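Homework-ish question, so no full write-ups if that breaks the rules, but can someone show me the predicted structure for this set?
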Amino acid sequence: MAFILEGLDMTKLSMARSGRRMVGTAALGCAVFLVGCDVALRANDPDIVVTATSAAGAIALKNGVIGRLNGATAGIQGPDGIFPFGGLLADEWRLGDTFEQRITMDKRNIVVTNSFLAGPFRDLNRTRVEGRGAIDALRKYSPSPATNIALMFALTAFSEVQIGETFCNGIPFSDVLNGTITFGNPVSVDSAFRRAINSADSALLNNGGVASEVTRMTSLANVVKARAQLNRGLYAAAAATVATVATSFSYTLTFSLGTRDNQNWALGLNAGRYVVANSEGGNGLNFVTAADPRIVTVTLPRGPFDSSIPISWIYTTKWDRSDPVVIASGIEARLIEAEAALQAGDGVTFLAKINTARQTRVDLPNITIDPGTLATRADLLFRERAFWMFGTGHRLGDLRRLIRQYGRGAETVFPTGTFVTGGTYGPDVNMPISFDELNNPNIPQTPATQLQSTCTDRNA
Amino acid sequence: MIYATIARLTHRPFLALGLILASAGTLAAQVTVSGRITDKANGQPLVGARVVVVGTSLTAATNAEGRYRIGNVPSGPGQVRASQIGYASATKSTTVSEAGGSTIDFTLVLTPYSLDEVVVTATGDQAKREISNAVSTVEVTEMVKTSPIANMSDLLVAKAPGVQVLPGNITGGGARVRIRGNSSLSLSNNPIYVVDGIRVISDVNSSSIGVGGTNPSRVNDLNPEDIESIDVVRGPSASTLYGTDAANGVIIIKTKKGKAGRPVWNAYIEQGMIRDENKYPSNYRAWRTGSSTASNATVCRLSDQVARTCTVDSLTAYNPWRDIDASPLSTGNRKQYGMQVSGGSDAIRYFMSGEWEDEVGVITMPAAFRERLLASRNIGKVPYEQWHPNALRKVNARANLSANVSEQADVQVNIGFVTSSQRLPQVDNNTTGLGSNLYGGPGFKNNIITPGNGVGVRNNLGYRLFTPDEFFSETVNQDINRTITSGTFNYRPTSWLAARVVGGLDFISRQDGDLCRRDECTPFTAIYRTGFRQDNRSTFFNYTLDANATASYRMGDQVGAKSVIGLQYGKEKFNRNAGYAENLSPGGTTLQSGSNPSVSEATSISATAGFFAEQNISYKDRLYLTAAVRSDKNSAFGTNFQRVFYPKAGVSYVISDEGFFPKARALSSLRLRGSYGASGRQPGPNDALPFFGTLTTNVDGIDSPGLVVSSLGNAGIRPERSAEIELGFDAGFADGKVSLEFTYYKKSSKDALIARTLAPSAGTAATRLENIGKTQNEGIEASINAGIINNRNFSWETTLSGSYNKGKIVSLGGNPPSRGTTTSDIEGYPIQAWWLRPYTYQDKNADGIIAWWAPTTVLGVVTQDVRNELFVGDTTIYVGPSLPPAEFTAYNTFDLFGKKLRIQALVDAKVGGYQLNGNERIRCQSRTNCQGDMDPKSSLKVQAAAVAVRQHPLATQYGYVEKTDFIRFRELSFTYSFSDKWARWFAADRISATLSGRNLGFLTKYSGIDPESGYFGTSIGVVSDFQTTPAPTYYTFRLNVAF
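A: Not a homework solution, just the prediction itself:
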């Protein structure tokens, strides 16, 4: 068959000039396009940083870890930081708004699809995982002062103990190295506390530099370690750990207008989404009516965020927008020592330690009467802890310890009865791991239609 | 002069840069074919008819006298075909003599359906018969004159089968467009838009400031008045050559072009009013009798009565939406004035237009609150933008020039400019917005509350927390300046070779502003009370360069062939600088008037380079085979993935042209078609990269720079690849008076990109895009067009169309199901379908009230309370898809009184979709004002829904996910064309007047206000009917004058 260009038989026509020119131009065009392609496809985005291989980069990674912990605890909302969110499950805060994620948390009926669950768990793990990355970078590019490395280990320990106090048994701890995830297996909360103790010990071993900073890091690591030991029931060891921590010590997460707001302020005073609870569900402490100087409360002018909630109009002024949040302190150290004394049956030391803490404020009188029994001393101790460390992520762990270590029933320490917006309180005493964790292949998979927790159990 | 200049330039080789063409010399004696094309019925010339020398690249359009001229036609035997929209095409064989060329005249016959209609494809204009896919064409020019079309959303809704449009519900609100369902789990499911050959920005929810509801769409920047036609390319089988990003379909827009002849002016004036005709729910409150006046004013819910804490003895209901004191609804208005002119010579033609448009929406600040505002601020006039917080003002201008540089070359330059100013109200999912406060109000009018400043009390007139004088004082505006510029250069050096270069830029300057003056907005937080200002300035650049060359040749007498090769480059660049300040000075409105300012910067860049080759073979001009491949490289692909290839193959067979096909008037034409093709969706610009983000952190009281891990990256990331098989036929009946198009398709996305959730325990980025999913959409589309009656005094034409799409997730690639509170991604079911725990209920004690009693647990044994009347399931069940799978439309046109009066009516229905009535859900769960929670006489069904969501620990929203089937009277218009005598009296050629209405009513069983009510977000676009004010009704009058 002849090959014809409209009216032209190509089999008979020389392609001489025009053909050569056409092919040549085409080839040139293609070559220009292909060579220019790579240049034209370069897309450098100034928004991102791809390396941190310098001393300044290592310090920036360290600061980033502090920022992560800052967010995970009291620096974000929607999902909320673990300090206010855990306090909602406990008896510190009451629901003030209409978000279902907060309603079910306050109501102790948490579904694993609660979209606020994954955030704080992920952020606490970011503190831990990115902390490891920062340690590697600091060792390589900025090894001195070692207090920076100690801080990273201490904050890792803090995140591990906070995870253990907040979440159910069946907590995986995964890791990331060079972009590759090594998935962890679910472990008990006790294992989480053991990890925390090890991390705190690493902080103590990797400390060094200016003396005052070394002392600060040592105190931080010791308080966090003792907190983990307390959770494991190692009361005497915990007291020994914090014996050298000065009562005046505190380690704070700080906020500023240029960086991030304290969300205890944003959720509370600013928006009324959270209001301070008062004898919530019968068992809760009277954080408002106690009129304790450690928790100053005043009435919100227009009530809580959701006007349909028939509760007293209250809020806390404890935190303003950029107020720091104490995550470990000498006060906590004294209370740990008090608990050790309580466990040892030493009423004198018990009261002395409590009063040592109280004597740091002029508006708190000494407690002069020993309650006398283990149970009543525990009531006093846990009340003191609750008022001293309100809104700092300790209360949920304490309520769980009352069940786990002091034999209390869940319905005697957590809020119970009729819930304010309808229905009754549920049975939850901790937060489940979000169903997002099902993306961890080490977690047993459930059928798609089941909304089961990844927890191995929901015990305290 | 221009002609001469351009003609000189065409001889310079640099204009051929990048093209696969050359100035090939004349290969055979070439002559001219010319002639005239007229309407057979009246002998009038047909302007703009297309004439093509079959089997060559030679084409021309007729001028104002209906004349055409084609040069460089090879001598010898050949065929010439003439076609025009609305007419049956005609083909004539001729032998072109070397001596004098040839003169070929045509007379075309009106017919509603022709396979020779021209559609725009990636390689240029093609007759429908040659294309192996279904392509829907919307002829816009006449439609905008006779229909209530205010924006692009109106133009697209219910116009093409398989194209599902959810219109915006406020003035300036954008629409959600889905073609053949959702196929991407994590990327956008929006189609792309091509205007005059260049890709344009078509972002939905295009704003950096949220108002709680629908935000503008950049698609609505385009002016329907400037558009000649829209072709909808529905799936990958047809969009292959549009490359990576075209998998969700392509909307191809062709703007109006000038036609040779004297200047023709078209002026139009449109005036309209906008009314909210929706039926809003009342707010309820139940009361008890107490022992005092104070205790009488105590709410008593049905659940309280069940618990025996009180007894409901009275019920109040109040509908603030229809109370003149409280209602934020007024009559909005719409004005549109425009003028267009087109004309020119055979050498240069022009089309120019200008338009001014102004629309003020129905949402307003009620008089009572205006008075309160005046008193509180001690001013004499309410600022207009606070009085009417929803408005759009827009000015459009366009200039399109076409020039025949020589017989071998022509050039087109198109420039469109729009400047607009949009105000958006605080609505929908917004605590400081209208819906939250009015849907959430108590069941009575005079609710006295303590205002936010804590001083005294005030009457909220049925609003929950905040009132219109407060929340409408926060003004959100968006200013747009946009230029879409494109140029097309066509070069036909020989009769067999044609080349085309298209280049252009879509540039947008967008300013988003949010201003809350000190002491003027809601006292929601301290920040609101002291005022704030947000000012975000963005620029968008979208570059397109497209070049292709087509060689047309014949292999023997019966086989024609066409080879196309092309290159394409596209680049998108986005920059934003944002400023924010709070605690403004009294009267201050700028960033510097506030304290604590902050700034941010954002950049996004993406580029694609691709090439393609297409081979077409035709046999006897009735069988057309197409094979093509496109390859793309994109800046977003991972380093381990370099290039993607998309193949395509198709066949179109006009079997009715065969001799063996029975020649029957009943079945006058039949075309069979089938095609296979692939296309893709590109990942985000940085999805392949591991990187850190910056996080300034306060460390021990000092703001310090920080770095955090933002992305683990994915070096192997590649585009999401969709492949589609499409089969169908087009049939013409009764000499083309009735036509039927039927299409079946099956589309699979194999490397579906899923934002895979990374286990939180890994302590890293929340998600990572991975090519692990597979989705599928399968469906049918059909449309029937029939000229049922065609008399001088009465004619009736109807178009019925329908589509059904069944979408599902085939595989999540081992990823666990993505489960949310109400929607989930689960294998075997549609993307983001509704999954909830169901419940059952029974009024055991026949007291007319559904009661829930908690089970008791003793020693770990759970015992149900015998009084309990509501039971929630242990597992979630599939309720239904979020996107309606079926859509039907009926478009009827009636011409009366010698075609002086035209009546058009559009009715459409969407069937099978489900939606969460989130409005009623929150009213029952949190607002203490829903009927199911308050009214003892409410049905058990609504009570059960309220009990399940409010009282039961699992808080299931099952009772509020409802079927949204509806049938809607979408458009109705009456157009009267005045007689020529009248027109001449006004020194015009034609005058017509149109009275029209949009969104005139609907039928549904959905218990919310409107089944299309809501706003949408995310890439999937699940609609949230949450505290939304549904779309209003438009009534417009339009006058068209041509002279």
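Now go work out the reasoning yourself. Hint: Chain B touches chain A through 133 residues (CB under 8 Å).
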